[in-house]
Amino acid sequence: FFFFFFFFKQKTAYEIMPSLVGSEMCIRDRYNSLEWLRDNDAAALETTFSYSLDYFGDIQVRDLKENGRDIPVTNDNKNEFIIRMCKAKLYEEIKPQMEALLKGLYELIPKKLVSIFDDREIELLISGLPDIDIFDLKRNTEYNGYNVNSNVIKWLWEILESYSTRERAEFLQFVTGTSKVPLDGFKSLPGAFGVQKFQIHKVHGDANRLPAAHTCFNQLDLPEYPSKEVLQERLSKAIKEGTEFMGLL
């Protein structure tokens, strides 16, 4: 699936919007370091706008911008560094291979017929709308900071049970990266590194922030909202706006 996700990101001919979620799905160690940098003092890393690449045994230093190896990463420019690093790792390093794959795809299906869809719409067109059993998902959910009796958790399941088939598919895409349901149920929900059950983590602090998803880990970060109505509004907004690109800055 992860190949599917990035291949069709390229297929749609969108200018890639690098995100920590994309980095998380492809390069776990890199994601961890970028996430740490985002939330901490950049001076501790003592890094520059460059990175090392092992190219068949030949260690190369590549600049993320002109003379990048001479430009230190600071708290003032670390967001630019994160964006440039994600773009380099998720796009520029594989650009020739992706262009070759796209050339083959467009020989089979004209570009104008598929470019109107994004990657998630393509998946739904290919696979159709799944039958998502919310009770099975609930049985196979792990909690961090919450429990089954927490008000926010009770509200969440009530909201998901009220969702239409399409809305459930969109939610599943949001939290796992795909609308597909495992053949033997959510007990076998795959993550990037093996079976990983759906997880809901409590987010402390600002209750006005949107829920966020870590699709690599099938994880939903959920603030403690004051009411069911607020939760429903925030969750719907997060899903509709595609928050894989939020939370970066």
Number of helical regions: 11
Q: Which stretches are low in confidence, meaning pLDDT under 50 for 5 or more residues running?
A: 11-23, 243-249
The separation of the N and C termini measures 27 Å
Structural class: alpha/beta
Strand content: 5-15%
Q: Which shape, going by the Cα principal axes?
A: globular
What topology emerges from the helices and strands here?
Blueprint: H1 2-11, H2 20-26, H3 28-39, E1 50-55, E2 58-63, H4 78-90, H5 95-108, H6 111-114, H7 119-127, H8 134-139, E3 141-144, H9 151-162, H10 165-176, E4 190-191, E5 194-195, E6 198-203, E7 212-214, E8 219-223, H11 228-241
Helix pairs in contact: 2-3, 2-4
